[in-house]
Amino acid sequence: AVGTNSLTANTTASHNTALGHEALKANTTGDLNTAIGYQALDANTVGDRAVAVGVGALGSQNPDSNTDTYNTGVGYSAGNAITTGIKNTLIGGLSGDAITTGNQNTSLGFQALGKTTTSDNNTAVGYFALLENTTGTNNVAIGSIALDANTTGDSNVAVGTGALTTNTTAGNNVAVGTSALNSNSTGDLNLAIGSTALSSNTV
């Protein structure tokens, strides 16, 4: 441990690495964690096998027992609000920073999955991808602002810049191509392949 108050509460935990002011400061029995950065993993007490790199990364993680969390947060405040969620991989500034109890989410990009809280199994790759998603599950967004307005829609696939960018609550849509289905907000069960395919479809 290197840094003021890093791993300061450690009692019987082993194989932890803490580098930075207050990194892993509350950890008591959690094992095999890596925290690099100011207040990275600083609330964790008993959680195991987490990696946090960046200021405030995974800063709220605190499972109720010695759980293998397998959470990874890399970037400023990445995964900062996660409390008991597990198996999340969040890379990028503010990536997945609102997730609390959501599980198995993957985000790569600035503010990707930025407002997701409790949902599971989402994949967001790109700037603002799935940004507004709160509780929508099983979505895949690849590309800048892909599915960025989605809030509660489930099981959508958007590949391409701006694909399904207006979608809010609709589910089971597939859009592949730049701006494909980009005006769709509440329409379900659509398939659009190609640049601007079905771009005027709304419902």
Please provide a written account of the structure.
With 203 residues, this protein is mainly beta. Helix content is 0%, strand content 16%. It is built from no helices and 11 strands. An 11-stranded parallel β-sheet has the order 1-2-3-4-5-6-7-8-9-10-11, with no helix packed on it. It starts with 16 loop residues before the first strand and ends in a 10-residue tail after the last strand. The mean pLDDT is 97.
Comma- or semicolon-separated keywords:
mainly beta; 203 residues; elongated; single chain; 11-stranded parallel β-sheet
Secondary-structure map:
Layout: E1 17-19, E2 34-36, E3 51-53, E4 72-74, E5 89-91, E6 106-108, E7 123-125, E8 140-142, E9 157-159, E10 174-176, E11 191-193
Parallel strand pairs: 1-2, 2-3, 3-4, 4-5, 5-6, 6-7, 7-8, 8-9, 9-10, 10-11
- Note the gap between the termini: 55 Å
Mean pLDDT: 97
Largest sheet: 11 strands, parallel
Low-confidence stretches: none
Q: What's the β-strand tally?
A: 11
User: Globular, elongated, flat, extended or rod-shaped: what is the shape?
Assistant: elongated
Order of helices and strands: EEEEEEEEEEE
β-sheet strand percentage: 15-25%
Q: Could you give the order of strands across the largest sheet?
A: 1-2-3-4-5-6-7-8-9-10-11
Helicity, as a percent range: under 10%
Radius of gyration: 18 Å
Short description:
The protein is an all-beta fold.
